Amino acid sequence: MTDIAGVRPPRLLTRDARTRRRNAAEFRFRLYGRVAVCIGVAALIVLLASVVANGVGAFRQTFLTLDLSLDAAELDPSGARDVAAMKKVTTIGYGRFLTRQLKAAIAERGIRIEGITDSDIAGMISKAAPAQVRDRVLADPGLIGRTVAFRLLANGRIDGYLKGRVTMKSARLDGNVSPAQLRLSDALRKDGMLAMAFNWGFITSADASELRPEAAGLGVAILGSAYMMIIVLFLALPIGVASSIYLEEFAPTNRWTDLIEVNISNLAAVPSIVFGILGLAIFINFAGLPQSAPIVGGLVLTLMTLPTIIIATRAALKSVPPSIRDAALGVGASKMQAIMHHVVPLAMPGVLTGAIIGLAQALGETAPLLLIGMVAFVRDFPAPPPEGFLDPATALPVQVYNFTQRADPAFAERASGAIIVLMVFLLAMNLVAILLRRRFERRW
Amino acid sequence: MNSASLLLIVFAIALAGWFLGRRRALAMAGGDARRLHSLSGHHGQAVFLFAAVPALLVMFVWLFVQPIVTEARIGDAIRANGLFRQISPSLVMSDVRRVAHGLDLMVDRGQIDEKGLAALGADGSELRARLGRVGVAVGGNVGGDVLAAARTLRRDNHRGAVGMAVAVVAVALAGLVWSLSRISVEFRARNVSENFVLTLFFGASLVAVLTTIGIVGSLLFETVHFFRIYPARDFFFSFTWSPQFRGGSDLGIWPLLWGTLYVSLVALILAVPVGLMSAIYLSEYASKPLRAVVKPLLEILAGIPTVVYGLFALMTVGPFLRDMIAEPMGLGSSSSSVMTGGLVMGIMLIPFVSSLSDDIIHAVPQGLRDGSFGLGATQSETVRQVILPAALPGIVGAILLAASRAIGETMIVVMGVGAAARMGLNPFEAMTTITVKIVSQLTGDTEFASPETLVAFALAMALFVFTLGLNVVALVVVRKYREQYE
To answer: What's the CATH number of domain B241-485, 3.40.50.1110, 3.90.1150.10, 1.10.645.10, 1.10.3720.10?
Structure first.
């Protein structure tokens, strides 16, 4: 080898400055990549952890167990056990009755709290509790005259105290709860009257007004979301599959087909809120469908998920090898038969996976539903389908938004709890999609 | 008869047609199916389709058109009547609808029969009380004109329902008879039914086109309506946004556009480097097991509904930024801010950017990498000097797509950025975006025909044009780039 004058040959055992610099740059670059990945994963963990930490409390609720002696003179003044006559006693009457019974129960147990007033004792029970008792009595008038154990919802602030959201310090500043009430709840808790239990009402009952967060539930929202998913499934899946079959298998390559394809890919990128505007302008203002109805929401979400389903279905159809088609045509099937009898069944796992992913997307979508009036406060459950499709309802994600718009901090917990319910549904759908793909996907 | 039972009847007719068609075809061939051109099942299928599809089409169109026609007729009657000048016709119309619904309920519950209904006078308060008893609340006493209009509406609805039932059943039967009469040994039932199905498939693919037409049409219609009552110059060139209840609003788009772009910029500043670097790391450096774990994790972020991100912004990120950064530094005291919304939206966009970039990096041919390594470049030098330049157009396309996603995002900004229309530079202040204002202008209780409501359509039009433009540019860029290596 010839030595180049003045240049020291690089040694293999020690690194020169330039190599060191290059290696350092390499190390830094790799580090950036690691940091980026960590940021993404950390964001996911923090997001999920914060939702779960905030929301898990919504599934447990404080209840007050009380033996009520259902006094005939007060609850059924006519004495005839006639439901129509008994309806004359309103929830206000039941509220007074409950307060008296609670006071008696407290006195009976020898619990004495300084400075507690009657209205403090009345405020221990949720404002929804009188209606709860009334409904049960009206449903079974035979209960009157007997002593029955009732599990009543405690007030939202008392519930907050047991969950640590309300403290003695905050109670002093809060007009809605007094420290005496908190001391009483400590005593009742020791006595076993006040306890936390799993809150089925959160999943099954309807939304409740601003003043009674403890009674608010997701029943109407879950039902409304289910109705919309039914509509989406029955409209988007057939339309999506039919149009994908046409575009993938039959469409001639011409300008018209091009237009449809560009159209679909553009629709996939239109902001979801624009679909809400479409629903408002066409389905509600033009066609005169009712506001807040699951049918309108379902139609809007159908149009929104169509591109997703079409894109997934076309990919699934494309992955079926041409030899299948050729073989079918070779034994005398028509093109339609080859496709409907052979290609589509083979592509079905992919199609269903796409449909489920589209449905999951539709289930979580909020913005368009805000515009078609699903933010309204709905207390009544919609009727069973098909009439129920026209009844007012809300949807799960909209209910989350609704909860966040209310002042009482107890609703923040409910909002996160609703998110957990929503995520459980999404997780289940995605798991089904993954299992379908694992179980039935075929590699050619 | 309601539509559900009508639907069942149509299906019953069509199903009967299927069996009849098969039987008739076989009978014509003298029981020997080999003599038929098509299988007997194809004959049945043809009859089924011709009986069911046209009838369903008639039903669909009728359901869509009938309310429009009847309401237009009654609306004309209301407008012709001088009494309603002071109230808006749409309010009267909703009263009419409610009264008609109440009358229906009264008849259903047997409180009144049709004869009694005809004799019902308009002595306001009594009728109102009776309506109240069936659970229909009417704003005021029911006037004679409203009652008359409600009667007309009921009559028209009733006639319409009967007419629809008759027409649909007639069309179904006609289709059945006609297609049955066509059956013969030579009849090419397979070709006919397959072509019919193909036409249906084609029709389904038109739904997407119709949706676009619907979007553009409704946006355009209401936007033109808006510009007729509000000067376009003020909308495009005014720097103030202050809608008023009693008219005289300033509805300039600039504060909203500024907020939108600012939030999107913050989001992209987070999402692009993080997304791009994680895509590079995962595709060039990461071991297979790591990739198998991390990639799905990032994809979970993409599947989380935006309302969850909104809640995260509202309850976690917003208060954190306010207490840790904004208040100690004296930058603001609002938990909803451009920074809150931007950061959370950035998190949402990370998987979007990373999966798009991943595809693009994968599309760079392996030969380029091998060549670079062969010349002695390190891995990072290869990425920076060979792969990224080669992938640049695709990455630009991905960033544009992410930007269009950010501009159209609604829930995060509704819950995290605030509603104050303001053009400031401080990212810890609450601002607002186009999508927030679309939601707030359309969910309020203002009258539909006012400029304060209609402006939402103009805003949506701007949003639509903006995102569509970005998407088209991005797709063109990406497609050009793909062709380079294919």
So the answer is: 1.10.3720.10
